[in-house]
Structures are given as C-alpha cells and as structure tokens.
C-alpha cells in the first residue's frame, strides 16, 4: 500500500487516492447537505474537504480508514462554518429558508414528511444531529462515528439515544422543540 | 434466561442499527417480545432511521458536479505554478507597486475609481468573473459565427475590431460578446485551452492613456495584462499563471500591429 510521501503528490499515490476517494463523494455530499441544507454551500464544503484530502493524503496514517478520515475533515469544516455563521448571525432562520434548497422536488404527500424531518433535525443540538446522521443515514459504525467526531464511543451512544428520542418526540407531536444552538433567528 | 445480560438502551440502538451479533440480537428480540411497550418505541425509532435515510439518500444519487471531480482537482494542482502561489506573487507585486510610489494607485485615487489602463484591466476582470465561469453560455456569439461577432463588436465600438488568433499557443477561440463598461461598450473575446481553462480579452477605445506598452496590471484575484495602441485599449486576463498570459499578450499585440 501507499507509504508516506511528501505532499502525497506521487502519481501512483494520487491514482490510489482517486480509486479510494471517488466512490465516497456522493456520501460526502449527502452528509454536507444534511448539515448545511443549502446545496451550493454544501458542495463548496465538499470541495474544500477534497482539496484538503489531496494535500494531506501523504500524511494520512496508512492504517486509517479513508471514509472516517474524509468524514472527519468534512465534519470539522462544517462545524467551523456553522459556528462562524452563528457568530456573524447570518444563518437563515428555518422559517425563511427556501424549500427548494432540499434535495429534490418532493411529491405532495412525502413533501410534508420530509419538511417535518428536516425541521425536527435542525432543531436538535448539533452534537446529536451529527451522530444521528452519521449512524442512521451514512451507516457508519459507532466506532467510526466516534473517530469522525473525536469523542469516545460512550459519548456517541448517549448522543444517539438522546437525539433519537428527542427527534421522535418532535415527529410524534409535530411540535419542533428548538435549540437556539448555532442558529439565530433574524 | 437468568444468565442473559440485562438489555441496555445501547443494545436497543445497536439492534436498530443492525450492529448486534446473532446471539445478542436473539436476546434483544426475545426481550422485545416480552415488553410490547419497549418494542413499540424501538419500532418507532427504527422507522425514524428509515425515514431519515429516505429523506437524504436522493442527494447521493445526484450526478456529481464537475467541481467535485477529484481527478480534475489533482490535475489542476499538477500545473507548474499553482493558483495560490501566483496569487501571492500578485499580492507581492501589488505591494511593490504601492512601495514604488503608488503610481497606479495615485492615479486611481482621485475619485476612487481606476482610470485609463488600470480601469480597462478591471473591466476585463469583471467580464472574466461574470462570463468565464458561466457553464451554459460563456459567450453570446460562438466562434463558428465569428463574422457576425466581429461585425457586432466593430459596429458598437465604431471601429474595426479583429479577434486575435491564439491557436498556435494552444488557446482555442470560443467567441465573444459586447459588454458594458463605465467607458462605453467593449468587445469581449474568450479562449480556452484543452484543459478548459479560459482567458478573456477585452478591447475598447481609450479616452486616456491611448498608447501604453504591454504590462502586467497589479491587483485582482487573477493575472491581468493590459496595453493600448493607436487609441484602442486591450486587456488580457485569466485564471492562469502570469507567465502563461504574458507571451499571449505579446502575441496579440503583435497580431494587432500586423493588421
């Protein structure tokens, strides 16, 4: 396999990178958009993530799992961006955000469902939301989720449990309990 | 049954996520069969998981946009001078210009807007920013119809204008359009190389600085060259290294003089 190479610029190292990274790009886009909602901003973030991955490919530990490594880079970029946005107060309140920002034109009936779940997710604390998305949508193992987030598995489990219960209450009652965390209503 | 480890909340989530081994899964299933209230809650959470997957999965089915092509990104880095390195060179050049007495900025500072050649370079950069990034319609009239493009630009500029030919340097003529500037209409011509990197030339009559040699223009995010000959100004800009653009600018200047 690939040994450490300065800057990861070796031609065959890069070929290996393409083979390993390319299949993961759709999932990276999905995770970015599930966090940021706005498709263009999400793709910018994935682009940023890939740029960083290219530069750091050579420094990557050879035993590290490429998927968790990429998700960790993407997650950190997303968190930084959301925090900055929250500080600047530019984050658009959910009530104002455009429904077309979602992944597809929903059909009449499931559109309502999707909107519900997006809103309910958005209302969760960021830590719980990330865990739920990584486990439920991205299908990461608890160990990989812990690696992506840089927290112990026990923390992943408690965030997962609390997050899922809270999400479930929002969905059952239709009442979204908002967390002001990372959001600032205009 | 008494030997079974108590079922934990973690077990229930691992059951939902399919993360249990066969033996433990059987124990959880047995537990759920005896505890219908918990079973109902677990079923709800499992449905939530499915619902989330269904809500977000279509994103991963979308075709990946070209900006996210990893091979293209690696290719872009292999170019001799990377964008970031020459951008810092441009910043250094801008600082030098200030240090040298602020010649450019001195002129530009009168009413805050650049004039003459500096204005032309800025207009070319603006056109580049607007049109070169346009995937669908970067040019209004394509190269195939260059006769009508030349006619259009010449009519609006009220003088004969020719589109330079850069094919010998690997830049293909794409076409162009008339664009507005604070100094009247200008002709914009666009070229690309076989990697799809685009450059833009802008030309218009000059009210000030009617004759100036080809020179690198400071400022901006992209490389820009500008000059003026016989009352017509020319500016060549692009998201490429200045040492790529410089010979192209010379080549255009030579072609203009030969016609």
TrEMBL record, chain B:
InterPro entries (alphabetical): Anti_sigma_zinc_sf
Top-level taxon of the source organism: Bacteria
Protein name according to UniProt: Anti-sigma factor
Lineage per the UniProt record: Bacteria, Pseudomonadati, Pseudomonadota, Alphaproteobacteria, Hyphomicrobiales
């Amino acid at each position: 396999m690939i040994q450490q190479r300065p800057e990861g610029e070796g031609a065959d190292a890069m070929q290996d990178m393409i083979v390993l990274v390319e299949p993961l790009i759709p999932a990276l886009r999905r995770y970015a958009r599930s966090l940021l909602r706005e498709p263009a901003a999400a793709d910018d973030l994935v682009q940023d993530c890939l740029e960083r991955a290219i530069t750091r490919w050579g420094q990557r530990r050879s035993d590290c799992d490429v998927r968790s490594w990429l998700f960790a880079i993407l997650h950190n970029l997303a968190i930084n961006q959301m925090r900055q946005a929250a500080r600047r107060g530019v984050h658009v309140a959910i009530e104002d955000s455009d429904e077309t920002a979602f992944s597809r034109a929903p059909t009449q009936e499931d559109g309502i469902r999707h909107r519900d779940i997006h809103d309910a997710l958005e209302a969760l604390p960021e830590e719980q939301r990330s865990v739920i998305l990584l486990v439920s949508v991205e299908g990461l193992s608890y160990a990989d989720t812990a690696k992506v987030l840089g927290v112990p598995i026990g923390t992943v489990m408690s965030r997962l449990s609390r997050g899922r219960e809270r999400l479930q209450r929002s969905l059952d009652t239709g009442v979204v309990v908002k967390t002001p965390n990372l959001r600032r209503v205009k | 049954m008494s030997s079974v480890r108590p079922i934990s909340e973690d077990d229930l989530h691992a059951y939902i996520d399919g993360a249990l081994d066969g033996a433990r899964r059987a124990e959880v299933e047995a537990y759920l069969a005896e505890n219908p209230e918990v079973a109902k809650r677990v079923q709800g959470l499992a449905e939530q998981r499915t619902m989330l997957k269904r809500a977000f999965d279509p994103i991963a089915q979308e075709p990946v946009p070209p900006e996210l092509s990893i091979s293209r990104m690696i290719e872009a880095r292999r170019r001799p001078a990377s964008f970031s390195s020459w951008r810092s060179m441009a910043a250094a050049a801008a600082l030098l210009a200030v240090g040298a007495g602020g010649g450019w900025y001195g002129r530009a500072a009168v009413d805050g807007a650049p004039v003459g050649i500096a204005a032309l370079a800025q207009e070319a950069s603006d056109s580049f920013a607007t049109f070169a990034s346009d995937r669908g319609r970067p040019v209004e009239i394509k190269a195939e119809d260059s006769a009508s493009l030349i006619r259009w630009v010449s009519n609006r500029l009220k003088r004969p204008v020719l589109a330079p030919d850069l094919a010998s340097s690997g830049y293909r003529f794409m076409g162009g359009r008339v664009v507005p500037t604070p100094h009247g209409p200008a002709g914009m011509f666009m070229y690309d190389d076989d990697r799809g990197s685009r450059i833009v030339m802008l030309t218009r009559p000059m009210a000030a600085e009617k004759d100036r040699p080809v020179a690198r223009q400071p400022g901006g995010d992209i490389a820009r060259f500008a000059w003026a000959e016989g009352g017509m100004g020319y500016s060549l800009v692009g998201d490429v290294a200045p040492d790529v653009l410089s010979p192209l600018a010379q080549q255009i200047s030579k072609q203009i003089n030969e016609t």
